[in-house]
């Protein structure tokens, strides 16, 4: 799948055209947080028309708050999404990272009832910063979270993507 952020200028101007061009390049799937705010019928029409599907879905924590989680589940079910992830966080202590991992696990318990796994999408700071001798990656991984591992960010920060994939 292609992350729409990587074709952001094209995507913003012409979503259906972006789907069409990605399909021509061999992509069968796409993903973007922006999908959530789109008209669902129009999004479904464009995806079906260009032969691509949403492969996974980012969320902001407020989208999966107790009073809003049902709408998020409905979206995921409508589009056949079985993996949801937090796409970005930044905390300044290990305790905050630990608590965030616990919050993600709690969201995972709720979404898991609907066949939706929960994870985290990394950037460079999660393996660069350390708190109490651990990186944010360590806190998230040790909590048992799945990752949408961005191997480019791992490599750019000097990490070993293959080691993380094996782990």
Proportion of residues in helical segments: 40-55%
How widely separated are the two ends? 22 Å
Poorly predicted runs: none
Which percent range describes the beta-strand content? 5-15%
Order of helices and strands: EHHEHEEHEHEHHEHH
- Mean pLDDT figure: 96
Radius of gyration: 17 Å
Shape: globular
- Give, in spatial order, the strands making up the sheet with the most strands: 4-5-6-7
Category by helix and strand content: alpha/beta
| Number of strand elements | 7
Plain-language structure description:
47% of the residues lie in helices and 13% in strands. It is α/β, with parallel strands linked by helices and 167 residues long. The protein has a four-stranded parallel beta sheet with strand order 4-5-6-7. Strands 1-2-3 form a three-stranded parallel beta sheet, covered by helices on one side.
Provide a short characterization of the protein structure.
The chain has 167 residues and is of the alpha/beta class. The protein contains nine helices and seven strands.
Write the layout of secondary structure elements.
Blueprint: E1 2-3, H1 8-13, H2 15-24, E2 29-31, H3 40-50, E3 53-54, E4 57-58, H4 69-78, E5 83-86, H5 94-112, E6 117-121, H6 125-128, H7 136-142, E7 146-148, H8 151-156, H9 161-166
Parallel strand pairs: 1-2, 2-3, 4-5, 5-6, 6-7
Helix pairs in contact: 2-3
């Amino acid at each position: 799948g292609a992350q729409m952020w990587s074709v952001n200028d094209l995507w913003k101007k012409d979503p259906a055209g972006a789907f069409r061009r990605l399909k021509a390049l061999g992509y069968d799937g796409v993903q973007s947080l922006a999908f959530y705010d789109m008209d669902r019928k129009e999004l479904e029409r464009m995806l079906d028309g260009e032969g691509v599907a949403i492969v996974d879905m980012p969320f902001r924590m407020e989208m999966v708050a107790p009073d809003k989680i049902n709408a998020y589940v409905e979206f995921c079910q409508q589009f056949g999404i079985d993996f949801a992830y937090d796409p970005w966080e930044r905390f300044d202590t290990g305790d905050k990272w630990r608590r965030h991992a616990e919050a993600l696990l709690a969201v995972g318990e709720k979404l898991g009832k609907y066949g939706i796994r929960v994870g985290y999408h990394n950037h460079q700071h999660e393996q660069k910063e350390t708190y109490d001798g651990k990186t944010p990656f360590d806190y998230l991984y040790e909590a048992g979270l799945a990752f949408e591992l961005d191997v480019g960010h791992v490599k750019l920060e000097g990490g070993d993507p293959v080691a993380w994939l094996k782990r």
